[in-house]
Amino acid sequence: MGEQHHVKFPQEVIDEYAALGIDLVAMFSAGHLGTRMGVRIVEASADRVVGTMPVEGNTQPYGLLHGGASAVLAETLGSVGSMLHAGSSKIAVGVDLNCTHHRGARSGLVTGVATPLHQGRSTATYEIVVSDEAGRRVCTARLTCLLRDAPGTAGERTETSD
Q1: Residue 20 clears pLDDT 90, i.e. is over it
Q2: Cα distance between residue 138 and residue 125, in whole Å
Q3: What span, in angstroms and rounded, lies between the C-alpha atoms of 94 and 55?
Q4: Is the pLDDT of residue 160 over 50?
Q5: What's the Cα-to-Cα distance from 117 to each of 17, 19, 29, 124, rounded to whole Å?
Q6: Any residues with CB less than 8 A from the CB of 148 and at least 6 apart, and which?
Q7: What distance lies between CA 22 and its chain's CA centroid?
Q8: What is the DSSP string of 89-149?
Q9: Rounded to whole angstroms, how far apart are CA atoms 30 and 119?
Q10: pLDDT reading at 16 higher than 50
Q11: CB proximity list for 56: less than 8 A, separation 6 or greater
């Protein structure tokens, strides 16, 4: 789970964040929760984010992939897509996540693919399809993120401004 891997980012995105001194791999990682769950982002752009997660260690008492684990994978991938769409002057905050669980998975890796349904100025919505190693759909999720001004940007609202 702690192995190093490289996420594929579009060169213009790498350049934009590098100019700000930001490590994209760290910024668009799965965070502490995703790391504990073994989430790996293997491809990332505003138009497609792909990630994997092992079933082992992420199961419920019946031995099936936990629905919450699918939700973590889905929210991670949709959030990364939203952040890449919004650019470095914004942050993405999840405001709605829904998941439909179609079938169980007992072993192997599941793969999530996030694609945009809406890419606006203030919100972004992604559909995330989680599939098992045989390509069967395990879960379909939809995530909507609010796109807020990043701290320190010109559009950020301060406590003294009304």
Answers
A1: no
A2: 20
A3: 24
A4: no
A5: 25, 29, 22, 8
A6: 90, 91, 92, 93
A7: 18
A8: TEEEEEEEEEEEE-S---SSEEEEEEEEEEE-SSEEEEEEEEE-TTS-EEEEEEEEEEEEE
A9: 21
A10: yes
A11: 107
CA distances from 150 to 33, 42, 48, 90, 156 (A): 22, 25, 23, 5, 7
Measure the CA–CA gap between 45 and 63, rounded to whole angstroms: 33
pTM for the predicted model, two decimal places: 0.84
In a 3-state reduction of DSSP, which class is residue 31? helix
Determine the average pLDDT of the residues in 81-99: 94
Q: Which two tokens stand for residue 137?
A: 């759909």
Q: What's the full length of the chain, in residues?
A: 162
Reported in sequence order, the residue ranges of 15-104 that DSSP labels E, i.e. its strands, are 40-45, 48-54, 90-101
Q: How far is residue 17's CA from residue 87's CA, in Å, rounded to a whole number?
A: 9
Residue type, 136: R
The residue-averaged pLDDT of 104-129 equals 98
Which residues carry out catalysis?
75
Rg from Cα positions in the chain: 16
Give the least confident one: 13-22, 58-67, 72-81. 13-22
Structure-token pair, residue 120: 């606006």
